[in-house]
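cron nightly-structures :: item 1 of 1
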Amino acid sequence: MRDEGWKFIFFSLTAMLLMLGSMIAFGAVRQEPPSFSISISASKDDIKSGEPVEIKVTITNTSDHDVDVSSSWEAGADMSLEYDVHDTTGNPSRRKARREGPIIASGRVATLKPGESIEETTLVSAVCDMSLPGQYVIQVARRISTDTKQGKVKSNDITVSVKP
């Protein structure tokens, strides 16, 4: 009889843990989708070595409420974006060091209504070294909010060619 009592407790605890795990997993799946999307395109597909590399960034409000898409700019690059640049074999591009001396920066305050989009051109080569000839895969991301736990939204990938 004693063994049966322990078995009952063991199975009851196991069942409760499985239910709790299911509830946690269900809650994780039910997170709200991001309130915006990002898509990028190349300003030019073929760039000569040493030329600036620019991309067009389109942010679209995909929610039913206003979305703040304010940004800060430095040397022609939108610093509210995270830049992921690597060659076609996956080697990351070297990040450019910040220049010494005064930094010329600006900001843009912008709010998108539901369904609205904003398009901007940002200078990727101000942030990442793309001076060597080759193909570079570019993706950008933007944080969903100042709360880092909420994650970020990533754009599509594009490939640009830097020619000698």
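cron nightly-structures :: done
The chain has one helix and 13 strands.
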